[in-house]
Amino acid sequence: MKPTNFLCSMIISGMIALVSCNSPANRNNVQNPDPAHNSRISLDWPGTYLGVLPCADCEGIATTIHLNPDETYELEMTYLGKESNNFYAFNGEFAWDEDGNIITLSDFDGGAPHFRVGENKLFQLDIDKKPIEGELSEMYVLNKKQLSAEEAQLHDIYWKLVEVGGRRVDSSTESMKKPYLKFDLFKMRAYGTGGCNNFFGRVELPSSGLIRFNRMASTMMACPDMQIDQLLFEAFEKAEAYSINDGKLSLSGQGRVLAVFEMSE
């Protein structure tokens, strides 16, 4: 959803204004005059960048930016320490400056965030595209996400559902899609199908072996047999941990196995 909401725009504008106040105009901006060796051309910039940016009236802004190869972006911000109205999501296109080192996120009313693109880093700039100075200057940095060895065992693998809620899954019938689960752990998302409806949502791995599914949603098709879909959603709601053994992924919670998947091509 594009950020047309006025309240959201004011929040972003306020954040940028706060940055601007702490940024003297005479700070030297890092530029590379050689167009053949700028960030746009020389760096592997597509990917996911994470960090906690300073906040004037909260504990920090947990920020995630996905930069896609087609020069579109997805931005998610969580205002830490606030119990309500604390999550905002935006998407749109971004534009490079003439030197190919700075990007500007579009589709914001009243101001747009600027970032200098570095090696596996994004440096937030002020509204004049200048580096931020002051005691908190080092905190205006987002780091490119790298998958851990544990995350790599889950990421971008086709996990075929073989058991859910104690029921074996037979996906051999032509009228039923094969139920499966996939993870995009750069974007911390899960998606797939229960055989009837497609599902999608967020996933968290709080620590080793633990898992949590959030904001899971699905399409609203009606099928003759909806039980697998229903059992799978119940498994997502109750899942607390996972394990991978002999090519099988198990989700468990409340002291029992909730769903089992097999690695498949």
Number of helices: 4
Broad shape: elongated
Overall average residue pLDDT: 85
| Largest β-sheet summary | 9 strands, antiparallel
Query: Could you tell me how far the N terminus lies from the C terminus, measured between alpha carbons in angstroms?
Result: 33 Å
Low-pLDDT segments, ≥5 res: 1-32
Q: Could you tell me the radius of gyration in angstroms?
A: 22 Å
Tell me the β content: 35-45%
Q: Got a strand count?
A: 17
What proportion of the residues is helical, as a percent range? 10-25%
Provide the structure class.
Answer: mainly beta
Order of helices and strands: HHEEEEEEEEHEEEEEEHEEE
Detailed description of the structure:
It is a single chain. By secondary structure, the chain is mostly beta strands. 14% of the residues lie in helices and 39% in strands. The protein contains 4 helices and 17 strands. It has helices at residues 6-21, 39-42, 149-152, 227-238; strands at 47-53, 60-67, 72-80, 87-96, 102-105, 114-118, 121-124, 141-144, 158-164, 167-168, 180-184, 189-193, 198-204, 212-218, 241-245, 248-253, 256-264. Strands 9, 10, 11, 12, 13, 14, 15, 16 and 17 form a 9-stranded antiparallel sheet that branches. An 8-stranded antiparallel barrel has the order 1-2-3-4-5-6-7-8. Strand 5 (102-105) and strand 6 (114-118) form a beta hairpin. The chain is elongated and about 60 Å long. Residues 1-32 have low confidence and may be disordered.
